[in-house]
């Protein structure tokens, strides 16, 4: 009898689906690239190639109806998933905006055409250079292929007389490619992109990457870098390019990051629900990352799996609610205190541009 009452109670008073700024869905962790700074490259022996089923994706439809954006991307290349456009249709039918980030290698002219006909809202391209520097750092991808893919998108949009998808760039700024930074405004203006988010490396998988990630070691260097960024932004603005910078500062105090943990979530290709991609890296054994040149176990954090419980129940779990409440204060959860996301500093001119921060920085 008690079980029956509990069942009735849960049915009558089931938790509401939250109104979220975005739901990021890692539809696959397979990738055809080999970026030198990516955890898949560092942890290739422990990596778990996995793919979210269309059935699991469709089970989240009630949550999609309350989300502003469904972003189909995680630690893999989204266009490797054979059900990519079926997922687009599911999320669009629920009323959400839809975006993805790609390395550009699989974005052919037919794919560009379908992206416009299916009304995908945002296409992000990951880059780590605008010359052969990108090809050296992001092995398996080519800057010329990205330029061709962007051109194909522009042509498809023109043929259909539409403005979407907006073309975004997630640009990884490393010490080894910083010499190209002054050329970014002209390059992206010529490419005709809508928005560029320039980030420094936030996950250090090998100690030698520390020198690539931290771009300023003294306050004088940080001041010089900041001044350079302001100049680049002013140049970009004159050329009509919406450019943002979020860089790791060794002098920043701990603060909540831009992953928007209180109003967004990440679903991995295994169905696990996590607060951000940094706590949902698909490795099967304990691995290390480096913070202030000290090794720490790679964090893993899941509050439930969509194969066991719907997203509304997972979102309202007491432990998940306690975790999110930490981000309303300066008392970050322990798992976040050794993450460079907490040291990322926005360096930007005043802007009211919507959507900034929606393209992940890897």
Arrangement of strands in the largest sheet: 11-10-1-3-4-5-7-8-9-14
The shape, in one word, is: globular
Distance between the termini: 52 Å
What is the radius of gyration computed over CA atoms, rounded to a whole number of angstroms? 20 Å
Describe the largest sheet.
Answer: 10 strands, mixed
Total number of strands = 14
Q: Average pLDDT value? A: 90
Helical percent range? 25-40%
* Unreliable stretches covering 5 or more consecutive residues: 351-362
The proportion of strand residues reads 15-25%
Number of helices: 13
- Structural classification: alpha/beta
Could you state the order of secondary-structure elements as H and E? HEEHHHEHEHEHEHEHEHHEEEEEHHE
Summarize the structure.
The protein is an alpha/beta fold and 362 residues long. The protein has helices spanning 2-12, 39-42, 54-58, 61-64, 84-93, 109-117, 132-137, 143-160, 184-191, 210-213, 219-238, 311-315, 318-325, and strands spanning 22-25, 34-35, 69-72, 97-102, 122-127, 138-139, 166-173, 195-200, 242-248, 264-267, 273-274, 288-291, 294-297, 344-347. Mean pLDDT is 90; it is low at 351-362.
